[in-house]
Amino acid sequence: MLSEKIVAGLTEQLISHLFVQVEASGRHVHLCRSDIDQLFGAGYQLTRIRDLSQPGQYVCEERISVTGPKGTIKNVVVLGPERKETQIEISMTDGLALGIKAPIRQSGQIHNTPGATLSSEKSSITINQGVIVAKRHIHLHPDDAARFQLQDNEIIKIKVFGDRSLIFDEVVARVNKNFKTSVHIDYDEANGCGFKKDMLGIILK
Amino acid sequence: MLSEKIVAGLTEQLISHLFVQVEASGRHVHLCRSDIDQLFGAGYQLTRIRDLSQPGQYVCEERISVTGPKGTIKNVVVLGPERKETQIEISMTDGLALGIKAPIRQSGQIHNTPGATLSSEKSSITINQGVIVAKRHIHLHPDDAARFQLQDNEIIKIKVFGDRSLIFDEVVARVNKNFKTSVHIDYDEANGCGFKKDMLGIILK
């Protein structure tokens, strides 16, 4: 009876220790139709230059400046496609430079977040909300979610290795058939954990 | 017999789960006598303006600029007292701005590390080594080390809480009778874990 339990425990451990790709996301903006119109001209279409790891998401040629009470960050990349609402994702380090106290939020949850001024070469707009620090998360394809026995919105841990090895707690699992499985952290987290390209993590439930 | 083991296991767990103060260290330099002479004048004495949490360590009025191949960071604080060897502690974010690939090292371990140019208002010097990213560590007074059952140089884990909760792995315990017990992380790690002043951590062995 006891040995059965031990075996069951070991199996659980094995299932819950699995490698996933870790990616670091730099600061970027997603723009809504009306903000694209105002920044780049009515009906302007964003220019795709490179696909991102998440299917359908891409880097655009367009760059904008983000300005807060304390400073400006230039040359911030615009990611496509356009979204229902404009969202600016920065690091806490960026927030200090801009003087914007952005909360840690999941993408899309921009209610009650601070705004900023966005500028293209042509014009500027001030948005009232939309600046967030992205909450660390794992994109999961449903096949991987099933294999790892993870549910959408489940909170898991991810361990990374190296001389700044650490275990990220509070990683939100987001399951969607359009996702490629990978962990997304921001550059503060990346620097804090000694991130290197093609770094792998292990899922700890 | 089994229940005794369970109780022993629980006691061990309780001992290993203890709160400690977490502090974030900003970029700073420690200067040796000859570098002080060259930057500020022969025989110059550093000006103490505020004590640090570690007994005997203090913030100086003096500020210097640190320059690497890609940029300069101005207004870097000098910490006293003077040391046997000059050491510049930056974050990985700083390293990117400076164009200096600083390794993660314990304080004092500056063999084979990159150099930088240091400038005061009076003069500049170029040092051949001494730029590091500080390896996260816990300063322990021997009384606390005994209470927590930790040895000098032991590697432990520290868990911190909040919406960027994580477990720092690879935390070096440094035990010295001159230390006040506290965990030191840098600003990348601080931003990566949602650091707030007076944050507490839990020791996990």
Layout of helices and strands:
The structure is a homodimer.
Chain A (H helix, E strand, L loop, with lengths): L1 H15 L1 E8 L2 E5 H8 L7 E4 L6 E10 L4 E12 L3 E3 L2 H7 L5 E2 L10 E4 L4 E4 L3 E4 L2 E4 L1 H6 L7 E6 L5 E10 L6 E5 H6 L7 E5 L1
Parallel strand pairs in A: 1-14, 2-5, 6-10, 7-10, 11-13
Antiparallel strand pairs in A: 1-15, 2-6, 3-4, 4-5, 4-8, 8-9, 11-14, 12-13, 12-15
Description:
Two copies of one chain form a homodimer. Chain A is 20% helix and 42% strand. Chain A contains five helices and 15 strands. The first copy, chain A, has helices at residues 2-16, 33-40, 92-98, 142-147, 187-192, and strands spanning 18-25, 28-32, 48-51, 58-67, 72-83, 87-89, 104-105, 116-119, 124-127, 131-134, 137-140, 155-160, 166-175, 182-186, 200-204. In chain A, strands 2, 3, 4, 5, 6, 7, 8, 9 and 10 form a nine-stranded mixed β-sheet that branches. Chain A has a six-stranded mixed barrel with strand order 1-14-11-13-12-15. In chain A, strand 3 and strand 4 (58-67) form a beta hairpin. The two termini of chain A are 25 Å apart. The model of chain A has no long low-confidence stretch (mean pLDDT 91). The interface between A and B is medium-sized, with 26 and 26 residues. Strand 13 (166-175) of chain A pairs antiparallel with strand 13 of chain B, so a sheet runs across the interface.
- Approximately what portion of the residues of chain A adopt beta-strand conformation? 35-45%
Order of helices and strands of chain A: HEEHEEEEHEEEEEHEEEHE
Give the averaged pLDDT of chain A, no decimals.
Answer: 91
Which oligomerization state do the chains in this entry correspond to? homodimer
Which percent range fits the helix content of chain A?
10-25%
* Total of helices of chain A: 5
